[in-house]
């Protein structure tokens, strides 16, 4: 049935006088007036006032002829009296008529005299050249073609002939006689390919080798598909020889994907216990990379099915998230003696709980990379440094978190390090030169802050960091290299953008920080050097951008069980330390608090601020313990304080309307003591928040300034 019609003509059509005895469409364009004019003497002068849709009009016109309301001879006059909405040619209208007739011919409700009119109408349309017979022969059933005399064979005979032809074309296989082919031809072929493949210096003999391979196929009547299979086997043994790239195009591209897919399907059989060899994944990646095979054609042969793998991994992640959520939960069934024993335990912190869970997950998922051929193909792309196709598989298999596998993660790290090798070498040379010149007093600090060299990073590098996610914590050296390269890239790109008058690509640096560096930081156990490196990148950004990254960092890691375990452990250890923190043990426990903050600053500092708001006595010990924090942690702490001030749902004034709430007084006192004790605090963003509140007519937060006015006399509010 044609698609739903557009709006009808302005003239509202009236229903036909007589109702048909069979199911007919609602007429919108073939009205009684139109039928009367077409059957009359003035049919040549009659015209419909408005254009009509071609498909709907032809459908109603055919039904009118089948019902006997319009003779088939008047069809030409009806077509001449209308203008179609579409700019249709005669070939298009003929194709639509053929589709309508094929549809009506299959309708079992059209029988008797209506069937006879349908046959007469079809013959008339063919005789008047409104339909090409070839279109009807393509689309109509065999019995109907026999009725309209467009087939010389009866319906059953034509159907049987069609089955025989399709069987011969699509299902009949060419049989090869192995005895007739003779194994001597295959032996000579294998010998030739192994000699050529092992001799890497014999690159000029490629044309001669191709000629010999063709001669062997013709002389010994070898099966080309089996020859191609042998070529792939030799290519797997010698993947570095480029002569195979010239041999493989001799065979059809579609056959190449099929034969390579059959190799993968062999290892999917139940009686085959050996995993797919890495060499097979490597040559598959090389063939896809060189364009000799399409990725989608090969992807269809790999197992397991994506939906099944995603469902299985989803249940696995849910179980691990439940385990991580239980960390730090209070046992309500514990007795008083158990609680006292827990209080007497020695104070310890465990920075490796999340890493232990990660090791358990890696061990549990280890067999997956052997069974999942798509992950193996992804590893093959990474091994041949084909990032374009590797990124496609990273996106398709994102729900499987492929970078969690150590093999894939290490291969991705190798590509990242290779990508930044040139930029990092430039950074090292220039950094050493600047350091040497500063030691000899030949360069001032202003020349160091604005480097004269330019570092360019490709967009693929930032895509790789997104793929790494929080797993860059596995290689802290690479982590620091990335931070240094991003720092000089931001400075050089900003300088080049200022010179060229275009916008600086800060969004790429922000994406790298938000998707990779900050999530990885909370999985690195207490490394202040890493904190300083990442602060070197963050300090180049305005505080608005930094605070936005902190907010996204806190929200986007709830679905990763490893990150969740790190947060839960940090929160639990922080509460245990705060319960015992006092002046007597300040030096020991203060360092432990700093270690926790180095590893997971957002969670630890937020927990401390929440405790300080509830307990005023904790302010002095906590402020003294914060002398071990880094500049990054001070910045995150100021973000948390501003967020707590701006958080809704809490009253800042008591019910009497005169006194401030206890939590606000504690927070203001804590911040004042902190700023007095640590003069390196940057207060610009806090002052800006208070100014914005004053503009709104809200001055309650001014209490925070009681202790901060003497913290940094150089701070000014604009």
TrEMBL record:
Q: Write one Gene Ontology MF term.
A: mRNA binding
Listed under GO cellular component are: THO complex part of transcription export complex
Source superkingdom: Eukaryota
**Region named Disordered:** 1-22
Where is the THO complex subunitTHOC2 N-terminal domain positioned along the sequence?
A: 593-668
Q: Where is the composition biased (Pro residues)?
A: 1-13
Q: Which Pfam families match?
A: Thoc2, THOC2_N
Give residue ranges for domain THO complex subunit 2 N-terminal.
54-236, 254-447, 461-591
| One GO term of the biological process aspect | mRNA export from nucleus
Name of the protein this chain belongs to? THO complex subunit 2
């Amino acid at each position: 049935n044609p698609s739903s019609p557009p709006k009808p003509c302005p003239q509202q059509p009236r229903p036909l006088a007589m109702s048909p005895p069979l199911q007919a469409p609602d007429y919108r364009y073939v009205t009684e007036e139109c039928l009367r004019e077409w059957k009359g003497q003035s049919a040549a002068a009659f015209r419909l006032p408005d254009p009509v849709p071609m498909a709907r009009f032809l459908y109603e016109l055919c039904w009118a002829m089948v019902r006997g309301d319009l003779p088939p001879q008047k069809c030409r006059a009806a077509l001449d009296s209308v203008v179609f909405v579409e700019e249709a040619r005669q070939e298009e209208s003929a194709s639509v008529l053929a589709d309508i007739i094929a549809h009506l011919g299959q309708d079992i409700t059209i029988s008797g005299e209506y069937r006879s009119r349908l046959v007469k109408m079809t013959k008339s349309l063919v005789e008047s050249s409104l339909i090409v017979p070839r279109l009807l022969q393509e689309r109509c059933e065999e019995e109907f073609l026999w009725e309209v005399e467009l087939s010389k064979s009866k319906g059953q005979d034509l159907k049987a002939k069609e089955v025989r032809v399709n069987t011969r074309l699509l299902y009949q296989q060419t049989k090869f006689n192995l005895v007739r082919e003779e194994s001597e031809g295959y032996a000579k072929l294998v010998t030739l390919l192994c000699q050529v493949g092992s001799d890497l210096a014999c690159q000029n003999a490629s044309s001669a080798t191709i000629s010999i391979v063709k001669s062997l196929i013709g002389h010994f009547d070898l099966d080309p598909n089996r020859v191609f299979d042998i070529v792939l086997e030799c290519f797997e043994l010698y993947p570095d020889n480029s002569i195979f790239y010239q041999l493989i195009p001799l065979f059809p591209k579609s056959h190449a994907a099929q034969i390579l897919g059959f190799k993968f399907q062999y290892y999917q059989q139940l009686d085959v216990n050996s995993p797919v060899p890495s060499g097979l994944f490597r040559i598959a990646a090389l063939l896809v990379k060189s364009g000799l095979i399409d990725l989608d054609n090969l992807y269809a042969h790999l197992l397991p099915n994506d939906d099944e793998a995603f469902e299985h991994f989803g249940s696995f992640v849910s179980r691990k998230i439940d385990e991580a959520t239980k960390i730090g939960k209070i046992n309500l069934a514990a007795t008083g003696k158990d609680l006292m024993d827990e209080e007497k335990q020695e104070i310890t912190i465990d920075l490796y709980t999340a890493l232990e869970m990660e090791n358990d997950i890696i061990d549990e998922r280890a067999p997956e990379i052997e069974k999942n051929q798509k992950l193996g193909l992804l590893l093959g792309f990474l091994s041949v440094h084909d990032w374009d196709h590797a990124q496609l598989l990273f996106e398709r298999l994102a729900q499987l978190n492929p970078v969690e596998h150590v093999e894939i993660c290490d291969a991705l790290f190798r590509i990242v390090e290779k990508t930044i090798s040139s930029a990092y070498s430039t950074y090292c040379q220039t950094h050493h030169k600047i350091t040497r010149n500063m030691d000899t007093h030949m360069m001032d600090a202003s020349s160091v802050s604005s480097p004269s060299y330019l570092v360019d990073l490709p967009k693929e590098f930032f895509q790789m960091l997104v793929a790494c996610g929080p797993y860059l914590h596995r290689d802290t050296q690479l982590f620091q290299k990335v931070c240094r390269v991003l720092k000089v890239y931001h400075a050089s790109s900003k300088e080049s953008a200022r010179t060229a008058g275009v916008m600086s690509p800060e969004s790429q640096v922000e994406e790298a920080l938000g998707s990779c560096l900050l999530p990885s930081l909370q999985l690195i156990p207490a490394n202040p050097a890493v904190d300083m490196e990442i602060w070197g990148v963050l300090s180049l950004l305005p505080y608005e951008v930094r605070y936005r990254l902190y907010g996204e960092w806190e929200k986007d890691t709830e679905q990763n069980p490893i990150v969740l375990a790190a947060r839960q452990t940090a929160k639990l250890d922080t509460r245990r330390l705060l319960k015992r923190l006092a002046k007597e043990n300040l030096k020991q426990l203060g360092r432990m608090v700093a270690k926790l903050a180095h590893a997971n600053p957002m969670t630890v500092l937020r927990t401390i601020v929440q405790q300080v708001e509830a307990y005023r006595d904790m302010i002095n010990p906590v402020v003294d313990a914060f002398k071990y924090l880094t500049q990054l942690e001070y910045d995150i702490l100021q973000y948390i304080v501003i967020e707590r001030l701006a958080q809704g749902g809490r009253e800042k004034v008591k019910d009497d309307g005169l006194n401030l709430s206890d939590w606000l007084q504690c927070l203001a006192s804590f911040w004042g003591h902190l700023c007095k004790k640590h003069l390196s605090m940057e207060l610009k963003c806090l002052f800006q928040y208070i100014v914005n509140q004053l503009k709104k007519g809200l001055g309650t937060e001014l209490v925070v300034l009681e202790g901060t006015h003497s913290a940094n006399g150089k701070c000014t509010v604009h």
